[in-house]
């Protein structure tokens, strides 16, 4: 039996160029893997065409390369994995863990986002309906220890309810796709933004339903603007400025509480990454869900 290869990944959606927040996540996950002697993969989560911007995938990959964040192996595009998602959905149906739902988003929003399992016994067809994953216990409690946040507990029953794994427009959900691809790529360590912390119990539940291995999780603070908004493409966060890659990396390292020396600001990308790999310490990252982005980003 071959030994397990430590594997992490960065999985952006092609909805626009990288900004400071996404660079910080990419950098942290890259450094964690290099420090551990593992592989760092890049996966493009391109399964939501209405939100995607033409050319964004190539732009993101070019930005990563410009910042010296070179991935191992080939980039995995989720748009090539639709058959695998359907196969797993069929398995869940065979286990009586999935059913079709006609409830509108407005109805679920009126329930404050916590689904009441209204369609569980309706035996609806798949036509024009979403597919939900059935919670198979009266009070489904998920607990895990996050490398940064610490102990995290969520009641899927009381906080989420049966959740969507395929939308009514036949697009597969993020929760399903990310769970299947983490298993497919043998990901052992997931380091990402804390905005995905409350999604993690759903992914752990899916892993258990499908007999998958659970990775280790670490959720980084989310960079926010002076108005308290998450830096995101939807909130029109500024794209990284070409030609300032060393400064961008230095600012991200400083924001991640790694205390990079000031003289690295004028060095090369290779020099600052060499320093960062040898000095990376994930335990120094602040245990906070959000932190203000540095001025200028």
TrEMBL record:
Its cofactor is Zn(2+). Residues 7-237 form the Glutamyl/glutaminyl-tRNA synthetase class Ib catalytic domain. It comes from the Bacteria. The keyword Flavoprotein does not apply. Keywords: Aminoacyl-tRNA synthetase, ATP-binding, Ligase, Metal-binding, Nucleotide-binding, Protein biosynthesis, Zinc. L-glutamate binds at residues 9-13, 45, 174, 192. It holds the Pfam family tRNA-synt_1c. GO terms for molecular function: ATP binding; glutamate-tRNA ligase activity; zinc ion binding. HAMAP family: Glu_Q_tRNA_synth. Catalyzes the tRNA-independent activation of glutamate in presence of ATP and the subsequent transfer of glutamate onto a tRNA(Asp). Glutamate is transferred on the 2-amino-5-(4,5-dihydroxy-2-cyclopenten-1-yl) moiety of the queuosine in the wobble position of the QUC anticodon. This is Glutamyl-Q tRNA(Asp) synthetase. It comes from SAR92 bacterium BACL26 MAG-121220-bin70.
